[in-house]
Amino acid sequence: MTDILLGKAVVGAPADSEIVRDVVGRAMPELPEPAPLASHGPARIIAMCNQKGGVGKTTTTINLGACLAEYGRKVLLVDFDPQGAASVGIGVNPHELDLTIYNLIMERGVDIRDVLIPSGIENLDVLPANIDLSAAEVQLVGEVARESVLARALRPVIDDYDVILIDCQPSLGLLTVNALTAAHGVLIPLECEFFALRGVALLVETIEKVRDRLNPALEIDGILPTMYDSRTLHSREVVARVHEAFGDTLLHSIIGRTVKFPDATVAAEPITAYAPGHPGAAAYRQLARELVARGDAA
Ligand SMILES: Nc1ncnc2c1ncn2[C@@H]1O[C@H](COP(=O)(O)OP(=O)(O)O)[C@@H](O)[C@H]1O
Ligand SMILES: [Mg+2]
């Protein structure tokens, strides 16, 4: 069960030549625990992006961030969704905030260090958002260099962190374009159901436009299947289709469907704190190790 949730299937071969394969049959690479870092920064910035809602962007931001922090990486979570779900999910009360990312990007003279707050988890800080941010989308339209407002706002702390994860809102609007302009890489969480595939082509097109016009170094780090149900053929078929269409952009790691994720959100904790021994926590630790192994995270 654990192996399946981790996206591994142990193929029935003799013990001395046992090969561990992922759900599409590729041999799993070794994913060792990352070596401790002697020094920190500059950060690699990764945007969690999919214009569809409810696919696991926020869950991935919080739990990948917590796992990288567990491995000693200094991590900043950037909540860039007016819903503020990443802030709430890490224990921040959005109504008690004097300053949010809205003030940082829309007002002059706001210091990012006055806006970010420690999450209570070692090595993990958060740049919080609340509903105020919904006004920014409209207000930014008239700004000079409106697509690179977030990139400029993050610059002063880039040397303080190893990884900065941006939780995007479910749209391809100006806030998301700002996240893609600020980012080095994009991680695409994809819910394991057929209609989920439809939006990916449009998302990839948007990413390519941003690469052409605004951020030539932008890479797609990977597609992460989420809410995978090992009991259904359907989940497996969706992942196979993603592999066919996108090849090794499909990560080896997959995230199984489990109620522990919504439960952890209600508890306002990452799964690594809420249920550290659960396969869901192991799945996000594996994702963290895979990104480090691919060079997508420090
Ligand atoms: N792997 C999973 N298994 C079960 N539920 C999940 C999983 N990942 C996320 N969820 C739940 O699905 C809902 C949407 O997830 P969320 O991360 O908020 O998506 P998004 O940010 O893309 O809108 C939340 O209630 C969350 O707790
Ligand atoms: Mg979200």
From TrEMBL:
Superkingdom to which the source organism belongs: Bacteria
Domain (AAA): residue spans on this chain: 44-220
UniProt record similarity statement: Belongs to the ParA family.
Function: May play a role in septum formation.
Protein name per Swiss-Prot or TrEMBL: Chromosome partitioning protein
Highest classification ranks of the organism: Bacteria, Bacillati, Actinomycetota, Actinomycetes, Micrococcales
